[in-house]
Write a structure and sequence with these properties.
By secondary structure, this protein is mainly alpha-helical. Helix content is about 75%, strand content about 0%. It is globular, with a radius of gyration of 21 Å. The C terminus is likely disordered.
């Protein structure tokens, strides 16, 4: 086997560091920090929490369309040809939010941001990791890259809270816009899509992967065939449920902690444990995925969410235990960004990876938009989060069942036949199995 050089490895991990910064500076403001604005926006627009959280749902639903567009765009164009424009637009939506005066305008800006942000974080990072790292180190690489969201949340949660308290919520969004701009030169300079562009090879690839690369063969299952399999749809369901459980905590934790008598300052400190859990979880579950497989990591994610919402019920009587669900939620959130990247390749290979990972990200986004909104609606109807927490416990259990079905069904998957060269030198098209 050909081993990557030290320079090869160094550049590969430099690319992962840029991915880490994308998750810290762009993904965290989009996905894990918006809950800090809910109370301020509710008061500003004289509306309900459900109405404010609906802006997050609108953003995620817009991202579904963005993923359809950009997953296919990235099969034709390089990441560095598209991502800088998306960053500028995303930053612009944060700056424009400063001038928003009503909830409808806020919805429109959220929709625009959601669409273009879909091409900025998990989707391109998944493509980068799959291109640069083989099966032997892909979990570690994606874990380090995705840990950026936890570090970003941990650093910028108190910073954003301080900005909101001191200068108002509008300046919080101005901060997010500036964070996007910081990423622009890093992507233009360092975000190389494949190791071949630098004359390098994949890091941690198996002998089979090296042979396939040498023969310029893409192994696996086409997207058209994948969507006709039960494994594909149960994978979508499992990711939808896991992401729904994740975003339920993100959207409602700060409000719930206030409802049970915890001060905003103490709540912010408790929520920082979620960020710590994300960092530990992404590094740990990424390594576990390399050693024991993505199935084990995903089941652990379901277990973490189960514990999160059991403790949410417990802390209504024992508030001192509030850090426990915060930590468990962070550990569980780790799998939501790690799983799609590894699962797409593990089930269906590299043949149509960009398209399939786009579908998986869409499933995750759908769950993170609809399920938390339903939970907030339950709160508005009942005046309590207790019913929502019981529902979340059920969702956590269902996600584990879906994961088990995915891997039971995956045993029957076989790669599409590889093209063979005829005596005349022509290469016939592969026939789908």
């Amino acid at each position: 086997m050909v081993q990557p050089s030290a320079k090869n490895k160094l550049y590969g991990w430099l690319v992962i560091f840029v991915c880490f910064l994308i998750m810290a500076l762009q993904f965290a403001p989009t996905a894990t920090l918006p809950g800090l604005f809910v109370t301020s926006l509710t008061q500003e627009f004289d509306t309900t929490r459900t109405a404010v959280n609906f802006s997050l749902t609108i953003g995620v639903l817009a991202a579904l369309f963005g993923m359809m567009v950009f997953s296919r765009a990235y099969t034709r164009f390089k990441l560095r040809q598209i991502m800088p424009f998306l960053l500028i637009i995303c930053a612009g939506t944060y700056f424009i939010t400063y001038f928003v005066t009503n909830i409808i305008q806020f919805y429109v800006v959220s929709a625009v941001r959601g669409f273009f942000a879909a091409g900025l974080n998990s989707l391109p990072i998944s493509i980068i990791v799959n291109n640069w790292f083989g099966a032997g180190s892909r979990g570690k690489a994606v874990g380090i890259a995705m840990a950026g969201s936890g570090v970003g949340s941990m650093i910028f949660s108190p910073v954003t809270g301080l900005v909101i308290d001191t200068f108002g919520w509008r300046w919080g969004y101005m901060l997010f816009g500036a964070m996007c701009i910081v990423l622009l030169p890093l992507i233009l300079i360092f975000f190389v899509q494949t190791p071949e562009e630098k004359g390098y090879i994949k890091i941690g690839q198996s002998e089979q992967e090296q042979l396939a690369a040498a023969a310029h063969q893409e192994t696996g299952i086409s997207a058209a065939r994948a969507v006709r399999t039960a494994a594909f749809w149960f994978a979508i369901l499992s990711l939808l449920l896991l992401s729904g459980a994740s975003q339920t905590w993100n959207n409602n934790a700060a409000s719930y902690l206030g409802d049970i008598g915890i001060s905003p300052v103490a709540a912010a400190s408790i929520l920082s444990f979620t960020s710590l859990g994300i960092i530990v979880g992404k590094l740990g579950l990424g390594a576990i995925s390399d050693k024991f497989g993505i199935k084990t990591s995903m089941l652990m994610g379901s277990a973490f969410y189960l514990g999160t919402y059991i403790f949410c019920i417990v802390i209504s009587r024992v508030p001192a235990l509030a850090p426990a669900p915060a930590i468990l939620a962070g550990l569980g959130m780790s799998i939501c960004t790690i799983a799609p990247t590894i699962l797409a390749g593990a089930l269906f290979g590299n043949k149509d990876y960009a398209i399939i990972i786009g579908y998986f990200q869409m499933g995750s986004s759908l769950g993170s938009s609809l399920i938390p909104l339903a939970m907030t609606l339950v709160y508005d109807l009942t005046g309590s989060f207790m019913t929502a927490w019981y529902i979340a416990i059920g969702i956590s259990l269902l996600s584990a069942v879906a994961i088990l079905v995915v891997f039971a069904k995956s045993k029957h998957l076989t790669d599409d036949p590889l093209p063979t060269t005829t005596s005349a030198g022509a290469t016939p098209s592969p026939q789908g199995g």
